[in-house]
Amino acid sequence: MRRNWPAASLTKLVFCLFVIEPANVLTMSRIIDGREMQPPEPLERTLAALDQLAPGEELILLLHCEPQPLYSILRRNGYRYAAQYQADGTNKIRISKI
Fold first, then answer.
1. From the CB of residue 94, how many other CB atoms can be counted at a distance below 10 Å?
2. Which of 26, 37, 44, 79 has its CA 20 to 30 A from that of 67?
3. What is the DSSP pairing of strand 58-63 with strand 26-33?
4. Are the beta carbons of 58 and 40 closer than 8 angstroms?
């Protein structure tokens, strides 16, 4: 059965999915779509999700900006991240524990 979820509720939804990496390693990811959130909500949700991040798990954060304060927090607390801008202007930030 296919469900039609309202778009507004999906923008703030944090959920898990499995990602197949190039080396065929299965990793679990959490996604926070912060593109429609107002500061500081994306940062707060990201920090809360990082507290629950399991080894081998990845957090994906979607934004329309470059979150410099978050990058500093990540570096100081032993996380690695990679940011990549998508064609639609979304900054896709992949975060994992070192």
1. 16
2. 26
3. parallel
4. no
Question: Domains in the chain and their CATH numbers?
Answer: 33-97 (3.30.110.40)
Burial of 82 (0-12, 13-18, 19+ CB in 10 A): exposed
| Side chain identity at residue 44, one-letter code | E
Residue whose entry in the numeric block shows the structure tokens 């979607």:
62
Q: Which residues on adjacent β-strands are paired with residue 29?
A: 17, 58
Residue for token pair 């499995």: 18
